[in-house]
Amino acid sequence: MQRIACFEKVSFEQFEKDYLKAFPDCNRVKEIYDSIKMPKRATSGSAGYDFYAPDGIVLEKGKSMLIPTGIRSKIEEGWVLSIYPRSGLGFKHRVQLDNTVGIIDSDYYGADNEGHIMIKLSCDAHDEGHCVELKKGDGIAQGIFTQFGITFDDEAEEKRTGGFGSTTK
């Protein structure tokens, strides 16, 4: 297996800013930040690195929620981290990522938001009143590193500055 990346926490200042934007009434941001669980594989045969809920979350049917993970990834050039939903959450609760698959490029690490990986989940359950309660430390998504190539005539030279959607502006 080739080792091509590492996970790190974003700074507390970046996490606080993003977390309070998502959860403005939270008064335990430092406690949550200090206990962030780093992504890891569950078994030696796992392809995916599990991402965990930084705190308890209740996701209601028909609603979406942006979850600042507190995590960023330093990835070697030529590789990408793809974020997928956890299959168990999808099977049991129809929880899915709002963008279907998140793409974390290697240059996202240096973005203005420190490459903070955010995961937006929604619950599309069929039954009325359905909600999903995730405890702090429960798996919410999984990330898989994949190698990629570029075309012979590729001329991309722009440098990333922003986060979501910044490369197509």
What does this protein look like?
With 169 residues, the chain is α+β, with helices and mostly antiparallel strands. It has 3 helices and 11 strands; from the N terminus they run E-H-H-E-E-E-E-E-H-E-E-E-E-E. The protein has helices at residues 12-22, 29-34, 87-93; strands at 5-9, 49-52, 57-60, 64-68, 71-75, 79-85, 95-97, 102-105, 118-123, 131-134, 139-147. The longest helix has 11 residues, at 12-22. It is globular, with a radius of gyration of 16 Å.
Attribute tags:
169 residues, alpha+beta, four-stranded antiparallel β-sheet, three-stranded antiparallel β-sheet, 14% helix
Task: List the strand order in the largest sheet.
Answer: 2-11-6-8
User: Order of SSEs, N→C?
Assistant: EHHEEEEEHEEEEE
The tally of strands reads 11
Report how far apart the termini are: 36 Å
Q: Mean of residue pLDDT?
A: 92
Strand and helix map with partners:
Blueprint: E1 5-9, H1 12-22, H2 29-34, E2 49-52, E3 57-60, E4 64-68, E5 71-75, E6 79-85, H3 87-93, E7 95-97, E8 102-105, E9 118-123, E10 131-134, E11 139-147
Antiparallel strand pairs: 1-5, 2-11, 3-10, 4-9, 6-8, 6-11, 7-9
